[in-house]
Amino acid sequence: MSGKARRNDAKAAVVLGWIAGGGLALLVNFVAFHLVGEGYPVAPTSFVLFVLGAFGGMHLADRLGDRALRVLGIATGALFGLALLVVVVLASGG
């Protein structure tokens, strides 16, 4: 693989790391809100957890190296599927 292709893959992996980390953090925050109830501070915890998750995903992308694009692509797809499942369950009244 050429140097330019590696740089492009690394950039794509960082983006997927941001999406996967932030998405996971928002799902965790959503579960915490439903466990705690109405007294849970949703707005500040959503912001803080998303930023922490996004930077964590970016760090993971850097640590994984050449494997990052494949691993984070699968993780992002799985998180999107899980988020879609949550939306469908909530929309159906579950």
What does this structure look like?
This protein is an all-alpha fold and 94 residues long. It has one domain. Helices cover 86% and strands 0% of the residues. It has three helices and no strands. It has helices spanning 3-36, 42-64, 68-91. Helix 1 packs parallel to helix 3 (68-91) and helix 2 packs antiparallel against helix 3 (68-91). The radius of gyration is 16 Å and the shape is elongated. The protein starts with a helix and ends with a helix.
Briefly summarize what is shown.
The protein is mostly helical and 94 residues long. Helix content is 86%, strand content 0%. It has one domain (3-91).
SSE blueprint:
Layout: H1 3-36, H2 42-64, H3 68-91
* Average pLDDT figure: 93
State the shape: elongated
Total of DSSP H or I helical runs spanning 4+ residues: 3
Poorly predicted runs are none
Cα end-to-end separation: 48 Å
Order of helices and strands: HHH
What fraction strand? Answer: under 5%
Summarize the main sheet: none
Helix content: over 70%
Radius of gyration: 16 Å
Number of strands: 0
**What structural class do you assign from the helix and strand content?**
mainly alpha
- Count of discrete structural domains: 1
